[in-house]
Structure formats: C-alpha cells, structure tokens
Amino acid sequence: MPSNLDTVTEWLCDATSEVGASYFQLPVAGQEELEYRERVYCYELYHHWRSRWPNNFPYSLGGEVDKTGHPLIRGNEKPDFLVHIPGQMTNLLVVEVKPANAEIDRLVADLKKLTRFRRPPPAYDAAYLLIYGMTLAVWTRLATRLRQRIAAEPEIDSSVISCLIHPATGERAAFAKWP
User: Fold this and answer.
1) Domain range spanning residue 27?
2) Residues 49 and 87 sit within 8 Å (Cβ to Cβ)
3) Tens of pLDDT along 11-35?
4) Helix, strand, or coil here: 135?
5) Do residues 154 and 142 touch, judged by C-beta distance below 8 A?
6) Which positions of the chain have pLDDT values less than 50?
C-alpha cells in the first residue's frame, strides 16, 4: 500500500503531464518569444493536481499559503504548494516551483525556504524543488553549480530536498539526483 506521500507525489507527477503549452510558456502579445511565467504554470498545475484529490483524503492541497503571523512558524514564508492538514501541525509536503530560466539566486532562496520547512516547526515530511522546462542533462550541470554555491550556506540542507524535473509539455516530471 503506498504511503500518503507516495500517493500525493504520483498525483503531482501525473498532473505535470497535463500542463498545456500556453501555461508552460506564455505567449505574449507583440512578442515572438514565449515566456516562462511561474504563477501561470503553478495555477494550471494546481488545477490538475487538485482534480485528483478524493473528498476523503486526509490532507489538503494549498497554493501559496501565507504563513506570516503563524504562532508556530517564524518568518513570512509563502511556499508555492503545501500538502497538510489545516489547523494542525500535520505536514506532509512543501513544494517550490521554478522555471528553467530562473536565476541561481532565486533557486538558492527556495532551497533555504524548503530546508526551513523540513525543520521543526513545521517539519514537513518532504520538500520538493520542481523545475519546469529543463532537461535532466541541463539539471545535472545546474545542480553541480548549485552544490558549489550552497556549500557555504549553512541554512541549506540539500539532503532533505528532492528535485523534480518537468522537461516539456506532455511529459511527466521525474525525480532527479543531486550530483
């Protein structure tokens, strides 16, 4: 029997394959180049991911839940997705999403945030960095650069963060290893 985390992860990976081209990269009026727009991708991903949720599933999917002022969580964290039981400190998964062209500083900031969410409180069981529009080969090169960059960052523990790579529309996201 799969765990709740396995089930939610399967739903997430399946949902990525349904994000259409115009949500993956947004056409912009008066411009030939398509643009990555993280919010557009996330809203469409939320729609497909949430559509898999049965009414009796114990965890809830939330998008950009603002933790500012939370009595048990320090800071003003607002992750892209949370899978938890609202009103309790029963926390399953936190997900940050970035497009393939995200600046390395933004990736580092998300890795810090994901690490914080793995530590108590709130101690989420898992944390995923989902990058869309990137191949596994490009991820391997980027991850090597990220490792060098975060080596001097005590706030980041990449061992508690899993990476999902969603290469293209119609494809399913898959886990990628840290080199």
Assistant:
1) 4-176
2) no
3) 999 999 999 999 999 988 998 999 9
4) coil
5) no
6) none
d(CA 149, CA 84): 31
Q: Are 110 and 98 in contact (CB under 8 A)?
A: yes
Q: For residue 123, count other CB atoms closer than 10 A to its CB.
A: 10
pLDDT of residue 151: 93
Which CATH number does the domain housing residue 94 bear? 3.40.91
Burial class (CB in 10 A: 0-12, 13-18, 19+), 159: exposed
3-state DSSP percent of the chain in helix, strand and coil, to 5? 35, 20, 45
**Domain count along the chain:** 1
Question: Which amino acid is residue 169, in one-letter code?
Answer: T
The CA distance from 119 to 123, in Å, is 5
| Whether 121 contacts 154, CB under 8 Å | no
- The candidate with the shortest Cα–Cα distance to 59, out of 96, 11, 117, is 11
User: How many angstroms separate the Cα of 55 from the Cα of each of 14, 34, 146, 178?
Assistant: 19, 37, 39, 35
Whole-model pTM? 0.93
Average pLDDT, whole number, for the chain?
A: 92
